[in-house]
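JOB MANIFEST
job_type = single_chain_structure
chain_count = 1
residues = 126
[input]
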Amino acid sequence: QVQLVESGGGLVQPGGSLRLSCASSGRAFTSYKMGWFRQAPGKEREFVASISWSGRDTFYSDSVKARFAISWGNDKNTLYLQMNSLKPEDTAVYYCAADPGPLRIGVSLSTDFASWGQGAQVTVSS
């Protein structure tokens, strides 16, 4: 399985921005789809965004569409999640995930991904 490490979380005021990074290593396949999920206290893990290996296909949950952007780094070893116009309800632990299988159109499921990072805390509060 690929190893994933998230970074870039923290405390930000409402309306602010953060960029999460996910560094990957140990890939056994030549291409992977990747995604971001989040889990708030007392809630189930939910889909945030996903991206195909080529980067041509991206999907977002309705709650973050037009505010968040998922992208690859130049070497495809790093995945980013740019988060703008943050709201208190965006507070959660954010996880990146990877899998060599095909990318689901629309909302991905947790079960679509085999490898997960340890998570990064994002807190939006004044």
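[summary]
The chain is about 0% helix and 45% strand.
The longest strand covers residues 18-25.
exit_status = 0
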